[in-house]
Design goal:
- This protein has 304 residues and is an alpha/beta fold.
- Helix content is 51%, strand content 13%.
- It has 10 helices and 8 strands.
- It has helices spanning 2-38, 42-69, 99-111, 129-135, 146-151, 158-167, 188-193, 206-216, 237-242, 270-299; strands spanning 74-78, 89-93, 115-116, 119-120, 140-141, 176-180, 222-229, 248-257.
- The strands form 2 sheets. The chain has a 6-stranded mixed sheet, with helices on both faces. Strands 4-5 form a two-stranded parallel ribbon.
- Helix 1 (2-38) crosses helix 4, helix 2 (42-69) packs across helix 3 (99-111) and helix 6 packs across helix 8.
- The radius of gyration is 20 Å and the shape is globular.
Length: 304
């Protein structure tokens, strides 16, 4: 009864804290973006990028603070002991809630480089968001379809080459690239509609992951297969977080070595496409089994 009574006040506190922190830090990042956009001098841009990255990490700390602001939070994290902030990683993660992004920000604030997302080129022109993401060196990509390449053969490989040039700055900035391979959040309705063969996951989409590896594979030190569950899954995790009822988060991190055979042309090499999809499906089968174990652990916590 007391929890239900306090829920609206906790929602107000958490939402206000998150909104104010995002507004203040986001504004500072955008302010840094203006001189960075107007002064295309490499030394100046690298310096401003470092400041923006520090602000981004500050935002990560703020989002991490939200988990403890109005509730006693217990993190059950397994397997991330050997991660370092000065390395380069790619994350493969299941996607069950908007809270997943905040969980990954919490992990990054602990012992990982700040995460980046590959964004569509069109997002650059979205007011405020575009400039903010550009300031944080989020790579904007433009994919060419087979039909476009057929009409203009000179476009073949240009998307990869252009994106690789944009990502060259990451040679100097340790980076974590996030891939939610399912492409959307898991729900029972989507699971049934897509006829997923996995118990707790949707089918993984290999194209974005393969594109990331083709673009930046040589820079990555490892692939992080991260699995997240929220035991109170009958209610949205966002509501549980905001209302101060999210007590436990279970995270499993499996570090995979970066392999040369995972880098190839997924969109034009059928043999590589089939091999890569098979590899990702095997990872997803393994992730499904990990979720079973995490659920069992959450349902039967060790006695104190």
């Amino acid at each position: 009864m007391l929890t239900l009574f306090l829920a609206p006040f906790r929602v107000l506190i958490n939402f206000t804290f998150g909104a104010v922190a995002t507004a203040i830090i986001g504004t500072l990042i955008i302010i840094i973006g203006l001189p960075k956009l107007l002064l295309p001098i490499p030394v100046v841009q690298r310096g401003l990028s470092k400041v923006a990255n520090a602000l981004f990490r500050l935002w990560g700390y703020a989002m991490s603070k939200m988990f403890r602001l109005t509730q006693p939070m217990h993190w059950h994290i397994h397997g991330d002991a050997k991660l370092h902030r000065d390395r380069w990683y790619m994350i493969l993660c299941n996607h069950c809630s908007w809270v997943d992004i905040l969980v990954l920000m919490h992990l990054a604030s602990r012992n990982m480089p700040m995460p980046r997302f590959f964004l569509k080129q069109q997002l650059f022109w979205v007011p405020i968001i575009g400039l903010g993401c550009w300031t944080l060196d989020m790579p904007f990509t433009k994919r060419y379809s087979r039909a476009q390449i057929a009409r203009k053969p000179h476009l073949e490989g240009k998307d990869i080459t252009t994106t690789q040039k944009k990502c060259a700055k990451f040679r100097h900035i340790p980076t974590t690239v996030i891939n939610f391979c399912e492409g959307t959040r898991f729900t029972p309705e989507k699971h049934q509609q897509k006829r997923s063969p996995y118990r707790h996951l949707l089918l993984p989409k290999a194209g974005g992951t393969a594109f990331t590896l083709q673009t930046m594979g040589e820079q990555f030190d490892a692939i992080l297969d991260i699995t997240i569950i929220y035991p109170s899954h009958k209610r949205p995790a966002v509501w549980l977080l905001l209302s101060g009822q999210l007590r436990d988060i279970y995270v499993n991190v499996e570090t995979l070595p970066m392999r040369e055979d995972l880098i190839g042309d997924y969109f034009n090499d059928e043999a590589f496409k089939e091999r890569f999809q098979r590899w990702l499906n095997q990872r997803w089968k393994r992730k499904d089994e990990v979720i079973d174990k995490l659920i069992a652990r959450a349902d039967n916590p060790p006695q104190q």
